[in-house]
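Data card: per-record layout.
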Amino acid sequence: MAPYAELSMSGYHGPNIKNISLRMMVDQLLGAQHHTVFVCEIAPKSGPGRAAKVHYHPFEEIYYFTSGGMRGTLDGKDEVIETGDLVWVGTDGTHGFVNERAEPACWVEVQSPIPPTSDAFFFPDDD
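The structure for this 127-residue chain is written out next.
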């Protein structure tokens, strides 16, 4: 895994998703035409800050948590997400996560369709 940093991926580069580590597994570089798959980790509470601000986008996501957990906001509803939980977010569904634990939160993420190369993430707090 890469060092924790601000998110930098196709369609989004910026400070609203920070202290995240991402390892791409399947994407257009491998010839994928309909989805991406990657592993993510958000820094623990003891780290330098650990959040993905509430946002939405024109594609679906699945998160399968492999270790740790987070507090999530899913379509305005607060949820506790634990190891072994699967979270599905529909197109334009709002979601955000904060790791309030002393351990990193890790998950496997799938996006479909592949995000656009620009303007793929929208943050309501920035409007």
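Known properties of this structure: The chain has a mean pLDDT of 92. The radius of gyration is 13 Å.

See the next section for split statistics.
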